[in-house]
Structure prediction request, 286 residues.
Amino acid sequence: MGIQNGYGTLLEVYVRAPRADDTTAWIDFGWRAAPAPAAARAEHEAFRATLAAAGATVIEGSSDVAGDADPDAIYAYDPLLLIDAGFVVLRPGKAGRRGEPDALATDLTTRGLTEAGRLTEPACAEGGDMFFLDGRTLLIGMGYRTNEAAVEQLRAIVGPDVEVIAFDLPHLRGPGECLHLMSFISPLDADLVVAHPPLMPVRLVQLLDERGIAVVEVPGDELASMGPNVLALGPRRALALDGNPETLRRLEAAGVDVTTYTGDEISRKGDGGPTCLTRPLFRAAA
Prediction:
């Protein structure tokens, strides 16, 4: 088992259920609308059941997040980076989320995982800006939530056996709206990703081409509804937010077996898709 790939069969995954007290701060955290607590809990429960039905052991976080209400705490992908040596404690660029990494670290330490490193000021990084293209290649997007200092610290933590490739992210709508690297690209297999190419850095497009990785293209009218934010349950097996019919058609045409879930409260209102809602802990070796 390992974790330095984004598409091996998902064996164990960490999630954080929505809590009613956190939803009161939805305006401060830039959510599109106030989540309905009971409906959000029901959606998340169904989401966890879907992950379990796909064969993953689902670990629900229990440690409290320090500080004020934080509706983004359900987006468990962002506070940590998982590597084969353990977990790296990140330092979110969104200041209101800086209580999350230690809460997740506490939960994972209880599960027997080891802290492999920790970012320190002035570094800022969020997990949505990085993923392993393969076991030896870590891609990082630099933008309003992840900076160059974080890239350099992460290079030192992962060590010389992992190539860290960083790209500048587009400005798009600026710092008021979060654009992560994984807002427009997600891995599906060793030779396949789903992405919205108009937002991709040229060097990233070239890298995929050089490595023979095909792209399932998400149309522009399905970008805002998180068409590119797809969680690989295994090679060419994916979990996607419902409501993106053309992306779904293109994924299935590429041989991807897609399961969809309803996320009106937990995904659409907070702009966090299935990748954001999960922190994979173990995958089958790719």
In short: DSSP finds six helices and 15 strands in the chain. Helices lie at 37-53, 100-110, 148-158, 202-210, 245-253, 264-268. Residues 37-53 form the longest helix (17 residues).
